[in-house]
Amino acid sequence: MTDAARDLVQRYYDAFNAQDMDAFLALLSDDVVHDINQGGREQGTAAFAAFMAKMNRCYRERIVDLVILTEPSGRRAAAEFTVLGEYLVTDAGLPEARGQTYRLPAGAFFEIADGKITRVSNYYNLQDWIDQVRG
After folding, report:
1. Structural domain containing residue 89
2. Domain tally for the chain?
3. Model pLDDT for residues 40-84, shown as the tens digit of each residue
4. What's the rounded Cα separation, in Å, for the pair 84 and 59?
């Protein structure tokens, strides 16, 4: 079961890196819960798709140095990684975008059921990101 969970999370990040939003969203359950770093909780693939549309407009990001951890039942997984990014368009409430690049350690926790991701909780140090884009 843990191989299936590991494979699912790997496919999630592969689709993210390929900017294949159809494949990315297809890995999520219809009622997926998304815990946004230092933000709220959203539910459903439509909300996740809207979040990703905004993210893809404001940022160009790639996940590297990915390490995926699973527990024996395959119902939970975690990932540690580095985000390599470029800040393209100013995101509300954040510093002005001028094409700044950043390298940000991050992590995520997943819940999995019936071969789909049912929860994604993302974590990174927002102040570190702000410091990097402010220069």
Report:
1. 2-134
2. 1
3. 999 999 999 999 999 999 999 999 999 999 999 999 999 999 999
4. 10
